[in-house]
Write a structure and sequence with these properties.
The structure is a homodimer. By secondary structure, the first copy, chain A, is mostly helical. Chain A has eight helices and no strands. In chain A, 86% of the residues lie in helices and 0% in strands. Chains A, B: It comes from Pseudomonas petrae.
Amino acid sequence: MIKDSHTHHISQQFNAELEEVRSHLLEMGGLVEKQVNDAVTALIEADSGLAQRVREVDDRINQMERNIDEECLRILARRQPAASDLRLIISISKSVIDLERIGDESTKIARRAIQLCEEGESPRGYVEVRHISDQVSKMVRDALDSFARFDADLALSVAQYDKNIDREYKTALRELVTYMMEDPRSISRVLNVIWVLRSLERIGDHARNISELVIYLVRGTDVRHLGLKRMQEEVKGLTAERINVLDTPDDK
Amino acid sequence: MIKDSHTHHISQQFNAELEEVRSHLLEMGGLVEKQVNDAVTALIEADSGLAQRVREVDDRINQMERNIDEECLRILARRQPAASDLRLIISISKSVIDLERIGDESTKIARRAIQLCEEGESPRGYVEVRHISDQVSKMVRDALDSFARFDADLALSVAQYDKNIDREYKTALRELVTYMMEDPRSISRVLNVIWVLRSLERIGDHARNISELVIYLVRGTDVRHLGLKRMQEEVKGLTAERINVLDTPDDK
C-alpha cells in the first residue's frame, strides 16, 4: 500500500526526503539498540568505562531526535503529505520519542552500573538482568525491523512479547524482595538491580509503542490500548480483508 | 505571535478547528490532573474505592488521546497548516502523549494504593508522598495553564521546578532505604511507597516535557535537552529580541 502510493508520487524529490528521514530514524534506532546492549554489558561486566561511554553517547541520540523532528516538520510544512505519507511522518515523529526514551533508560542503566562498580556488586539479580535484557533487545530489534520492512505481523509479535517481559519482571522482583528481607545489608545494592530491571521493562514498553505505530503505519488502524486479542484481530482481520480485495477483479 | 497569525486566517472554520482541538487537550489535561490528585488521595486515605475509580477513568483518557490524535491528523491532512499553526498541532499531538502517560502513572499509583489497602499501610513515606505530590500537581497545573495562555515564562518555571522534585525524590528515597534496612519486614510495603514516589517523579518529567512544548510553540525554539541555563537564555533572550523588534518602527 505504502509502496504503491510511493510509486505514484509526482515528486521524486519528495520520495527521497521520505526515504531519508526514515533511514535517519532507523540509524538512530541502531544506535539506541547498541546503547541498550552496552549499558547491560557494562552492568554485568562491571565495566565503568563502558558505562561512561553510554552516558556520553546520549547527547548524540538527543541531537538525532531534534534533527529528525526538524526533518518531519519541514516535510509537513513544504510537502503537505497525505494518506500513507502523512501516516509515515506521524509514525516517525512519534517513534523518535520512544527511541529517545529508550536511550534515556539506557543511560539510567549505565548510571546504576557505575554505582554498582563503586558500592560493590549486588549479590543477586544478574541472571534476571541478562535474561530479560536479551528478550528486550530482541523486541527493540524486531520493532525496528518491522519499521524497516513495513511488517505488521512482526510488529504484532513484538506487542505480544511485551506480556512475557512484564510477567518475568514481576517474578524477578518478587524474588529480589524476598532476598532483601533475608539480607537487609544488601538492600541498597539489590535496589540498583531492581531499577535496572524496571528500566528494561520500560524499554520493552517503548518497543511495543513503536510496533503499534508500525501497525498504524501499515494498516491505518490505531491499535493502542486495544488489548492483544483485538490488536491481533485488527492485524489479521485486515489481512484477510485485503486478500479479498485482491481476489476481486474490479477496484473497490 | 500566534494570535496575530490567527487573526490573518482566511478560514474562520480552520480557526474554530484549531481552538477546538486545543480545548480538547486542555479538557484532557483537566481530567488527568484530577486523576493524579485522586490517586494520591486514595493512597493517603487508604480509599480503595477511589483507587478503583481512578483505574476505570483511565479508559476515558486513552479514548481522549485517540480522538485528539485523529483531530490533529484531520487538520494536517485537510488544512495543511504552516508556521505557528503547524507548531500548535505538533505541540498538541506531542503533549497528548505526555498527558496519557501521566494518566498511566496515576493508575499505577492507584494500583499501589489498592495493594497497600490489602497488605496494610507502609510505616513510612506518606509525608513525602503528600509533599512531593503537592508540588507535582502544581507542575501539571502550571504546564497546562501555560499551554492555555501561551505563557512561555510560566512554562520555563515548570521546567525549573522539575529540578526540585528530582532532588526531593532522591532524599526521600535515601531515607526510605535506610528505614527498610532497620525494619526488613516492612520492605514490601515501603517499596509500594517508593514506586509511588517514582511515579510522581515521572509525572514531573512529563509536566516538564509539556512545558518545553509550550516554549517551542510560543517561541519556535526546541529547548529540549538544552539544560536549564540555556533554556532560560532562549526564553528570556528571545523576549528581549522581540522587544527590540517592537521598538523598531519598520517591520524587520
